[in-house]
Amino acid sequence: MTGLGAQARAVPTDRRPPPLVALRTYRFLRLGVLAMLGMLTVSVTWHNLQGDNEVLDSISAYYYTPVQSIFVGTLVTLGFVLIVLWGKTSAEDGLLNVAGMLAPIVAFVPTRNLARCDLLARSGDEIQIDPTPSTLNEACKAAVVNNVGSYFIVLGLMLTLLAAIGWYGRRQDPPWPWVSRDPHGYWWPLAGAWALFLLAAGTWIFLPETFYAVAHFTAASLMFVLIIGAIVVIAREKRYGIPMLDETPDVQWGHVYMGLAVTMSVGAVAVGGSVAAWSHLTEHGDYWVLAVEIWLLFWLAVFWAIQTWDRWNDGAPSNPV
Questions:
Q1: How far apart are CA 224 and CA 228, in angstroms?
Q2: Helix, strand, coil percentages for the chain (3-state, nearest 5)
Q3: Separation between Cα atoms, residue 196 and residue 200, nearest integer Å
Q4: How many C-alpha atoms does 158 have within 13 Å on its Cβ side?
């Protein structure tokens, strides 16, 4: 049996299957991401159907609504899973790791477009929020400072630990395979993560208003660019195979993944431009950001579901290459 269905249902006979506990954990981590994306969809839809609530101009704006907890939880979960799941190659693994680092920033630092907000004061009246980028919404400033600060402290410690592990592992006799087998695959993504961390943390410490003004949009944009880049890498892995893992080429799967990458990237530009033009001509609000976010999140969910099917019996590789 060959083709898309065959690959998902069988492990190559010349490869030892992963332990059952590891395989079950791998599967449920992947399914958990789909569940969280589904819950975010339900939460936003539910909110929009309540009373006179308007459709906001971006999913990120729902941070200021009762959707906030699910919005933040979904992004933190996505970031965690992107980091902890090992990619089959160092390129795939590195791109998804750095993308995962960015997801909590998108979650913890809200969009600065605060003109449309459903927050209510204790009296029941709407809170008047300054929508200009000169000040951060005081209603959530303490939470943002606490969350971002905590995240940067722990992230810095984890990156330091990974650097120490890499240094120590290389000096063992024999060296640890997952560090020494592909040194570039270990150190280059770690170096990129350090550079991104130092830039973000430095901006947060020394230029906090600049950080709050640009962090959300920049992190979200870069996160999706890296995810799309990882999908391209996965497409090439399928197209040409991974000899080190005894995986033969599968052109059919390669076309599927490359099609997803093209659809996500080209479609986002086309949808965003079309909706922006429609909004300008009809003066019915500025919904291009919302359209792009929906488009990217939908196709991210499709990619995740397809790859879950593709790798259902694979689990994580014993040694990424």
A1: 6
A2: 70, 0, 25
A3: 6
A4: 14
